[in-house]
Task: structure prediction
Amino acid sequence: MTRGVFDLRKVIRAGLIVAVVLSFTAAIGMVEEFDERMIIDRLLSLGFLALFWYVPVAGYKVGDEPVLEGMEATEKTPSHVLAGLIVGLIGGAGLFVLVLITNTLDLRDVFTRLSPKLVQLLTFSDSITDPQLALGAVALIGISGALGAAGGALHLVSAKLRRRIIAAPVAVIVFALLEDVIGQILRSFGLTSLVRQLYRDGAVRIIPALVVGAIAFYLAGRERGERSRLRELVQAADPKVRTRNSLIAGAVIGAMVIASPWVLGSLLSEILATTGIFLLMALGLNIVVGFAGLLDLGYVAFFAVGAYASAVLTSPLSPFFKPEWPWWYTLPVVVVVGVFAGIMVGTPVIRLRGDYLAIVTLGFGEIVRITFLSDAAAPWFGGAGGIRQIPGIPLGFDTVSGSDPQYIFYFALALVLLSAWVSHALLNSRVGRAWTAMREDESVAEVMGIDTVKSKLSAFVVGAVLAALGGALFSAKLGSIFPTSFELLISIVILVIVIVGGMGNIVGVAVGAFVLIGVLGGPRQPGLLQEFGEFKLLIYGVILVYMMLQRPEGLVPNVRRQHELHQDELTQDAWLDKSGEFVDEATGEA
Amino acid sequence: MALLQINDLHKAFGGVKALQGVEFHIDEGEIVSVIGPNGAGKTSFFNVISGMFAPDSGEIIFDGVDISGWESHDITRGGIARTFQNVRLFPNMTVLENVMVAQHCRTNQGMMPAIFRTKAFKQEEAEITARAKDILGFFGSRLVGYRFDQPAFALSYANRRRLEVARAMATQPRLLLLDEPVAGMNPRETAELTGLISRLPSERGFTVVVIEHDMKVVRDVSDRVVVLDHGVKIAEGSYQEVSSNEDVIEAYLGRPAESGA
Ligand SMILES: Nc1ncnc2c1ncn2[C@@H]1O[C@H](COP(=O)(O)OP(=O)(O)OP(=O)(O)O)[C@@H](O)[C@H]1O
Ligand SMILES: [Mg+2]
Result:
């Protein structure tokens, strides 16, 4: 069968998509905003990376074909390069149309970011006189076409080489983006001069970039077996050796974690502490959504309740509670308040299912925030002015507050470890099994003797307590809290962490928190890539949509969840396997 | 006194009268079959007893207490367990977990003991596991060994049916309601499960009500047979009595009731 080596309609469609993506990226101002930050010294700015990264991906994807069993794979021919080239050219041309429009019409009333500066950047010209514009057009479209073709060309090489070719630039980019972390670590070890040799103004210098690329190229080519020598040590056959190696590994990791705030410095510790607080809440929400299957969109309410409880009890400025308790004393109160809030919010809504529960909890989350904001409650919670002068955590010799992120890190770490253990211990218990059963089939769980109302409420309460603890730490860290600190967005971001990481999986949630909060940053908290500041939510959205379409089970999936989401395929498989099963049945027993 | 005594039970779904004044009783240790043509109301009968639907009127007296209108989980705790005609396992839980979770209402370690992994908690977990393995062992080699850790969806159809029975047994009931336990099984598998069902009262102390279409199974397991048609009990008695009953033969569209045998 002669399937078209390339399908022109598909190629053009892909090209137009690229054009839209490029124009959109340019129009929202990413190129200008990120232009200052260089990735590779004098060569590549973050702006151009943000703009063009999609072109080679699309150039590769357009040639991708589903591998169908029994069908011959189409031969890899240079037409793949051609397809990629066309995709890139169309994309570049689309972007150039945007430039032309910007140049002739002033659309800045609508698209505030379409400025002459953008035109300059995109056409590589200092002034926008006509002859140079033409040259710029050639350059722009040419680059885009070349990138598309390069993407398409990846089809022509072996899988191993492809992996290597992709790994090299990705490694360089990561190496550059992690400049803050790597530089800081090296400086902590007194290697300031090395940092200067590696980076210039946040961009990796050309020689180190080549070295990093080459190392990645080499490492990516190794086979799976070779890569896991470390793992082999931990999983050694001899149990004695294994225990010893695991202990050593645990000790090394533990020591690294304990030392990390001092190696990473206060800025990065701040980011880690923030990540920890969000992770703590995400673990709590994971119990509610991932384990018990209750979609709670008002989760921030419990965070707020914990933060306010702790703030009221500790701050000298709190409107009605004068004694100024030390932070530690507030913890039991915070737990009790969390339980109470969980029961208060949970009881009326718990009988609702699915979407209804989501909407009602969303409402409750807002009610809590508005209550704290209201004038009626101002005598207790300070209304819009919030509660200030929250003293922090007394340690005897010192008081830890937001200005010591390195200490806050330890508190966040302790609470995260606590909630990870709680999650793990509960999941593998009578209560956790009841949650799983309830998530799978609520009415059958009920018939099997599980009081589903009680079971749901218990999940709600555990989640509420963990969020409240997060709130207590949050208020001590910030020193002042306002109703606006507890906006709906936080509920959503935490849910996104859980979904992107992998619902129902503790490790997954941790990965999600590091990727979203650690790297991108929280709704109002900076992350590692501070440049992304105002585009953070857009990127969250893109990641979420991508995950929903391509990998709904999350980055690190829970096996059960994965099965639930891919049930159709599995039932098919089971059906196909059935004949085998019958044979087994017949011979299975004498 | 009967273990379960049902008086004048009514249940309608809109215009469909699924149960119309059903009288029923079963004594401790008996196996009673409920038969009847499709749509006769057999499954509805189970649904009402197990509390999935409240009856419109009538009494369901279990062990001297009227349980009509109770919630399902309370009824299960009270000692009535059931299986489903359209197998409804927890598909993504393992075989062992399916049986472990069904012991929920017979165990009581809560969240605090789980978090602190207390001695009592560990002991109870060990008991739950041991009991689950014991119950699965009742089905011979079908559900043991490597099968313990297989997700329920990966089981063959016959094994899913067996697991349904095992899961119901794990709630440690006094009365077991089996809704077409051998449906879809081949003759050899049917004979095997029929044998196991007959052993339930003597070996496990259960009283059993079984809905069944397969007349051979009905003949082999039942102490007594109850026939429903259009939500009405039209006959009751030994297999011989019922199978020669004119009304029953007519209900089955003139076919002799023994056609399955
Ligand atoms: N949840 C429900 N809603 C509406 N009608 C129902 C419901 N459950 C059962 N019915 C109706 O009640 C009647 C009895 O159904 P039931 O399932 O009890 O029959 P059955 O004897 O179990 O039949 P089968 O042998 O096919 O399993 C049928 O007419 C059915 O359509
Ligand atoms: Mg039925």
Summary: Residues B 42-43, 85 surround magnesium ion (ligand 2) (CB under 6 Å). The interface with chain B takes residues 421-422, 425-426, 429-434, 436-437, 440-441, 443-452, 458, 462, 560, 563-564, 567, 570-571, 574, 578, 581-582, 584-585, 588-589 of chain A (CB under 8 Å). The longest strand of chain A covers residues 38-40.
